[in-house]
Every structure is written in C-alpha cells, then in structure tokens.
Amino acid sequence: MKTNISTLAAGFCLLALIVSCTDLGTESQVSNFNMDDFPYEIGTRWTYSVSDNLKSSTVVVTVAGKIDGAAVWIWQINDGYSVKTAYCSASGDTMTISYSEGEYIPTTYVFPLQAGERWPIPEGGNSTVVRVGSATVPAGNFPSCFQIIESSGAYSWLVPHVGIVKMTQLETQSGRPSTWELMSYDVP
C-alpha cells in the first residue's frame, strides 16, 4: 500500500510539473503562415521598444488606412517626435513593407512562410525562414514564431494573427542597427 501511495504521489508531482511548464493559454505551434494570417485591419496597432547602440524609444505603428482599389495599407509610425508613413502592399503571394522616408530598406515576405523557404528580394540577395519556434518579447511568449533572415543580416520574427514581434535592421541614414521588440498590440 505504501508503494502505491508513493507511486501515486510521484505521478501527481510529475503531472503538476508538466502542467506548470506548459502554457495552456497559448496556441500550439503551427507549421506555416499564410498571407491571410497577417493582420491588415485598419486600427491594428503595435507598440515597440526600439533601441540601437545610442538610444531607446517607444514607437507606435498603426494601420491608418487603405488606398482605394489597391491592396496597399497605410501605416503610420509614431516615435513621439514625428509621424512617418510606411506602405504595406500585397500582390499575389508577396507582401512588401516600404518606407516613404527611405529610413529602412523595404522588407519583402513571400507566403506561405514555412521553415526552409527562401525567396529573392528586390534589393538583391534573398530571405530565408530559418526556423519556426518560440520568441519572447515584452508583449509575451509566442510559440509559433517564424524567424526570417535576409542576406543583408536583417532579422524579423513574425507570428500569425499578431504580425512582426521582433526585428533587427540597419537604418539607411545612420548606418546603425536597430532592434524592435513588441511591447503590446491591438488587432481588431
């Protein structure tokens, strides 16, 4: 009888350990990310912590509108000092984010995203989905995160139905790398 109680107690402890190490409130990992899984809705808002080797700031990116008759969404990027504009366009299986100020090199994604997928980018070189795994940023832990690297050395981490949760890129004007990490998001 003592052995059965010990076995039962050990089993209960193991079960408690497994449950405590599993986040039951998050989605399970997915293997691909379709273009429809990217949040384009007007009013979508992402708040990022942005840092480079000189400064840190908070940047709010909002889907502010859509160009009539085209699959182009207008993003406003507010760093607290100025509001800049970016355009997110979709054509076929390709999404491109370009910046009106030329501050960053445009970013191109070809969907569906899957580990190992590679595509050429207009500026030369290519982008590759290097892995699907978890990423932790101030907004939380995301188990289904698609990590992409460009031949330029820029990285981005995308999560279905959330968007870009982290990215590192080179600022074209200053030449400094910057890191963006998602602090919060609101997808209507």
Chain-wise SSE layout:
Layout: H1 2-20, E1 32-33, E2 45-51, E3 56-66, E4 72-78, E5 83-91, E6 94-99, E7 107-110, E8 113-114, E9 118-120, E10 126-137, E11 140-150, E12 155-159, E13 163-170, E14 177-186
Antiparallel strand pairs: 1-8, 2-3, 2-14, 3-4, 4-5, 5-6, 6-7, 9-10, 10-11, 11-12, 12-13, 13-14
What is the CATH class?
Mainly Beta
Strand content: over 45%
CATH A-level architecture = Beta Barrel
Measure the end-to-end span. Answer: 57 Å
- Global structural class: mainly beta
Number of helices: 1
- Ranges where pLDDT stays below 50 over 5 or more residues in a row are 1-27
Short descriptors:
1 helix, YmcC-like fold, mainly beta, 52% strand, 188 residues, disordered N terminus, two-stranded antiparallel sheet
Molecular structure report:
- There is one protein chain.
- The protein has 1 helix and 14 strands.
- With 188 residues, it is mainly beta.
- The protein has one domain (26-186): YmcC-like fold, CATH 2.40.360.
- Strands 7-6-5-4-3-2-14-13-12-11-10-9 form a 12-stranded antiparallel β-sheet, with no helix packed on it. Strands 1-8 form a two-stranded antiparallel sheet.
- It is globular, with a radius of gyration of 20 Å.
Summarize the structure.
The chain is mainly beta. The chain contains one helix and 14 strands, in the order H-E-E-E-E-E-E-E-E-E-E-E-E-E-E.
